[in-house]
What we know:
With about 170 residues, this protein is an all-alpha fold.
Amino acid sequence: MINNEAEFLKELLAMFKIEAEEHLKGISSNLLELEKIQDAGEQTPVIETIYREAHSLKGAARAVNLNQVETLCQSLESVFSAMKRHVLSPTSAQYDQIHAAVDRVGQLIEKPDLEISDVLQNLGRLEAQSKEQPQAPPEPRAAEPAKPAAPEPDAPVRAPEPLSLIHI
């Protein structure tokens, strides 16, 4: 039984590595694209994609007990969440820190015992800076359809017509 569990875990980790590589490629390529976009409205869908990739990677890491990968992905998610809310607009140096964190996730997949405290500190500073900035005003929403007017309080209320039974 133990041999079967070990084989299963080995296969699960191999599948995880393939999936993780895809998520990391998605995060990295979208981060590079994001750095080129100046308009906040155009950034939002790219940030959403990056956020989902990090979230999926975090869940997959949890499934194979790679706690450090999960922890680092959670911190990345927090940074991407602040970017989605437009309370964090990273500088070039801050983007470098985000890229370094993504690179460390990739390294952790091969060597799960690597130290991550330095990367977590950098991401923590980004999160703290986002909390210090005032939140951007919400984007305008489409106008809601008008609600039907309520009957006048003094107007008589008519009872519904009784239904008649039809005999066939």
